Amino acid sequence: MRVTCAMFMLFFAAYMAVAADTIPMDVKLGLWETTSTHTSAGAPPIPQEMLDRLTPEQRAKFEERMKGRSGQPKAETHRSCLTKEKLEKYFLFEDDKEMHCTRNILSATARKIDAKLDCSNATGIKMNGTIKVDSPDPETANGTIHMTSSGGGNSMNIDSTFKSKWLSSSCGNVE
Asked: Rounded to two decimals, what is the model's pTM?
């Protein structure tokens, strides 16, 4: 689901970047590993026309699956390569092809970022929330994200925590 993917990219990238009007975080470049845990509550904001395309059986299965996921923590671990270019381009705040976001940096230093995001897309889905990132040293970063997504008559809250650790200056084949 695109909203979930977008959320994952937001918290996965959070330790990588800050906004153009702040100082980049003082973290090492290279291979990083991020473990995140997220929970969601509510119904995903799926446009009605997409839901209307489902057969009654498909829709019942979908709704049952969403109920089963609601409130259940999900943990994921992912590796990424943090380059100087990614850090300088402020990857966290770039729009993807479908979601367009504005940012409000509440506070930012080389060690901490507090930001608010407001996003929307052409299908009427809106997301807003907060991101807090703390990097106590150049080899670790952790944070929290709270997002609310709405559209199609539904609303979903997503809460995430993440811990990132630097592994190596060489990324190998990891992007």
From this structure: 0.75
Q: Domain spans of the chain?
A: 2-168
Q: Which among 16, 135, 133, 137 is positioned nearest to 78, based on CA atoms?
A: 16
Dihedral sign from CA coordinates of 35, 41, 42, 43: positive
The total of other beta-carbon atoms located within 10 Å of residue 108's CB is 18
Residue carrying the six token digits 């590796």: 79
| Cβ atoms of 142 and 14 closer than 8 Å | no
Tell me how long the chain is.
Answer: 175
Tens-place pLDDT, residues 24-74: 788 999 999 999 999 988 878 877 777 788 899 988 888 777 776 667 888
Structural contact between residues 64 and 106, judged by C-beta atoms closer than 8 angstroms: no
Contact predicate 144/14, CB 8 Å:
no
